[in-house]
Amino acid sequence: MNRVVWYISTIAIGLWVSATGAGGILSDGMAEWPVNLWCWGLFAFIYLNTDRKERIEMLAVVALATPMELFFSEVWLVYEYQRDFMPLFVPAGHYFLFDLGRRAAKNMKTEWAMPLLIPFIPLVAYGAWTGDDTSGVVLLILVLAFTQWGPEPRLYAAMAWAALGMELLGTALGNWTWAHEVPWTGLTAWNPPLLVGAFYCFGDLLVNLTVAKFEGEPILEVNA
Predict the structure, then answer these.
(1) What is the arithmetic mean of pLDDT over 120-131?
(2) Alpha carbon distance 109, 115 (integer Å)
(3) Residue 222 has pLDDT above 60, yes or no
């Protein structure tokens, strides 16, 4: 089973089916259900056929991503889902993206992590200069900090790009929309924010800490 292919296909096709009702075949009320069933079925298949460490990771991602998603979309209101409430497939999708980023990171040299973030810098500067995405400066600092001092620099660099790719697709299809004015902050954001991966980096760090706690390992060895 080539998980990379399954993950990319699931994310791309799933978002399209959910957003468009499979091109109008499904009613709006039914559009999310095939994606919900597929994502959780794939999640269950992986869970039943993997080792203890990955099972802990999978449960940790779901346990952490679900309340974070609800806080961001229902309380902070930094983005809004197409049908108002978080689709049921989203927590499982978070694990697919996490594992996709991890697999990409394993094919990357550690010294590549920081240079891979350089293309973001002029774009963040442009967003700040125009005033259209002032939050990008804060998010860039966070991603750079995670990559420089965090335990998994390759993972954070990979997630910055993986998250952006998924966010560009999801916002283009209309699965969710980011608020231009970020509540409580006085900052602005593009739709999607260029470095939305900062949120994923934080979530990945929490997952790694959780696994290290349960496995009794130093965090540097969690994803070795």
Answers:
(1) 98
(2) 11
(3) no
